[in-house]
Amino acid sequence: MDPSGLTWTIHLAKEMPAKLCLVLFGYGAAMLAWWYFLPVPAALILPLVALTSAMSEFLFPVTYIIDDSGISQKCLPFFHRHIAWNDIRRASAGRDGFFVTTLRIPSRLDQFRGIRITPRGNDAAVRAVITDRMNRMREGLAT
User: Fold this and answer.
1) One domain for residues 74 and 40
2) Cys bridge to 117: 8, 21, 57, 98, which one at CB 3.0-4.6 A?
3) Distance of CA 49 to the CA centre of its chain
4) Domain range spanning residue 75?
5) Number of domains the chain is built from
6) Do 101 and 129 fall into the same domain?
7) What are phi and psi of 34, to 5 degrees?
8) pTM score, whole prediction
9) CA distances from 51 to 24, 73, 94 (A)
């Protein structure tokens, strides 16, 4: 693979404006419910931060980088995931893209130990790189 690797950015909120309306409705409902049970203005920060953290991959642009060191996912300056090729134990393709994880068998911890890769227009290139690397890992040739 060339040193630059594959890099692309997606922004799901821009791609799915109907779902963005649903998310904003959910924010409003959560804020109203929180205000009902705890009517302190400063306390509204907690559900706002929690919801934004949970929805960050949808609300903000996500940049994927696949290079010789591994697979990285960046969303905002403080959210960065990286899995080195040597640490990847399982890769699978799904309807929305690919999933790589450090766990050998499926588990409820997958979402915390893996990266869901959403390719846009470069599905074949991403599939080729992941397949090549996984085959090299099986053969013991990975660096």
Assistant:
1) no
2) 98
3) 18
4) 61-139
5) 2
6) yes
7) -65, -45
8) 0.81
9) 10, 20, 26
What number of CA atoms fall less than 13 Å from residue 100's CA on the CB side?
25
Q: Are residues 70 and 37 in the same domain?
A: no
The closest of 71, 98, 65 to 86, measured between CA atoms, is: 71
DSSP string for 19-87: HHHHHHHHHHHHHHHHHHH---GGGGHHHHHHHHHHTHHHHS-EEEEEETTEEEEEETTTEEEEEEGGG
Written as six digits, the tokens of 28 are 């409003």
> What single letter denotes the amino acid at residue 16?
M
- Is residue 95 one of the residues assigned to a domain? yes
**Closest C-alpha among 87, 84, 114 to residue 98:** 114
Are 89 and 72 contained in the same domain?
yes
Beta bridge partners, 63, equal 9, 74
Domain assignment present for 112: yes
Q: What is the CA radius of gyration of the chain?
A: 18
Question: Using one digit for the tens of pLDDT, what is the confidence trace for 9-57?
Answer: 999 999 999 999 999 999 999 999 999 999 988 888 988 998 998 899 8
Enclosing H/E stretch for 82: strand 79-84
Q: Residues for the chain: how many in total?
A: 143
Strands in 62-67's sheet, in edge-to-edge order, are 6-10, 62-67, 70-75, 79-84
